[in-house]
Amino acid sequence: MNEPERRGHPLGELIAAAADGRFPEVDGGWERVRPWRPGLEAVVAFTGHAVLAVSDDVPDARLEALGADGFGGAHDPRLMTALAGPDAWIDVLDVLLVARGRGSAAHPSGLVARPDLAGHPRVLHAAVVRDDVEVWGHADPMRSAVAILARGIGGLRELSFEIEPARRKGTGAALIEDALRVVPWGELVVAAAAPGNAASLRALLRAGFTPVGSVQLFRRSGPSGPGDAYVRRQE
Fold first, then answer.
1. Can you tell me the distance from the alpha carbon of 145 to that of 77, in angstroms, rounded to the nearest whole number?
2. Is the pLDDT of residue 216 over 90?
3. Helix, strand, or coil here: 157?
4. Which of 9, 30, 52, 127 would bridge 36 by S-S if both were Cys, CB 3.0 to 4.6 A apart?
C-alpha cells in the first residue's frame, strides 16, 4: 500500500488493504465510516464484514434495528430504502474490483484527453457521484469509446468506461488496459460493475481487475443526476 492510500479515507484504506490481500476479519459484523463525498453515502461489503459510509445523523442503534450485519444484511433492500428515504436515488448493487495503474514511459497509453466527450451520459453520471473527473478516449475524433478516471469510492481513483455500440470481443478489455496506462504505475484503481452487466464484468476481469467485495451508493433525496437513467439502462 503506498503512502497516499495509507493517509486517505478509512474506506479507501480498507479497500487498499484488501487489494493487498489483507481483508477485514470474517466476523459477521459491520463498522461505520464517514461519507467520503458530501451528499453521497454507501454500503460496502467484504466477505463476512460490512462497512457503512453513512452520515452521523443515523445512530448505530438505527442501523442495528434495520438488520445491518456482515452476512448480507447491510445490503438488504429494506435497509437501503429505509436509510435513503422515499425520494432517494439508489444505485444498483455492484461488484467492487481493484487493479493497479500501469503507466510508464516504456508502456504509454494509447488514449488522449477527450473533453469533447464531456456530454457523454457516462461522464455526466460520473460528475454527479465523483470528483476530479478526467475524460479519455481514442485520438480519432470519430471514435466515441470513453474511459473516465475520477476520485470515487473511498476517495480512490475510480475507472468507468463504455465502448462503441459495434463492439468486438476484447475491445472493452483493451480500453481498460489503455486507461490503466494513464494511471501512474502501482496506484490503486477501483471499478464497479453490476453483476448483470456480464460484458463489462468480463472485460474488467480480462484486463486484470480482481473482485474484493460489493458496493451500493445512494443519495437521500433529490432527483437522479444527469446520466443516471442511461447508466441504469446499460446495466
1. 33
2. yes
3. strand
4. 9
